[in-house]
Design a protein that fits this description.
about 150 residues; mainly alpha; Arc Repressor Mutant, subunit A
């Protein structure tokens, strides 16, 4: 069933969604930078934490960092000795990006600290409100994905 709606029905939502994302980025990024990492570097370290590593393709999909940007960020993390590129155990032609021992120590320190920082922003929400917000955001994501897929068929 296709519903007809005027732009006045969803424009306030788009504005609020954009504003919420910007506020999230400002709050999150300020803390990440205080940990001496860029947001992209933190994203990679956090994504690789508690894993045996990932291919650059997997890492790009999980972090949503573009391929060109991902290469440079991984290069800088290699220079900092926080990650390494290793041959894949299943296919020696492919590489896997892994945290080094130093990277694992960094992850163990910064990830819990960042989670604690982020929890402060949600302190005023009840578990029921958090669940409702999660469900609504999931529905929005699914609606955007469905619209994208329908357009690209």
């Amino acid at each position: 069933m296709c519903r007809v709606m005027s732009s006045s029905n969803f424009l306030p939502l788009l504005r609020e969604l954009s504003s919420a994302y910007q506020a999230f980025e400002v709050y999150s990024s300020a803390h990440v930078r205080s940990l001496s990492l860029t947001p992209a570097q933190f994203d990679i370290v956090a994504t690789l934490g508690n894993t045996s590593g990932m291919s650059p393709k997997e890492l790009g999909e999980k972090t949503l960092i573009t391929k060109g940007t991902l290469t440079g960020v991984v290069d800088r993390l290699v220079d900092k000795k926080l990650v390494r590129r290793a041959a894949s155990a299943s296919d020696g032609r492919c590489q896997v990006v892994q945290l080094t021992a130093q990277g694992e120590k960094l992850f163990a320190r910064v990830f819990p600290a960042h989670i604690t920082h982020m929890q402060r922003a949600f302190a005023g929400f009840s578990p029921k409100e958090l669940a409702a917000a999660t469900a609504n955001l999931r529905r929005l994501r699914e609606a955007f994905s469905a619209a994208h897929n329908a357009r690209n068929k």
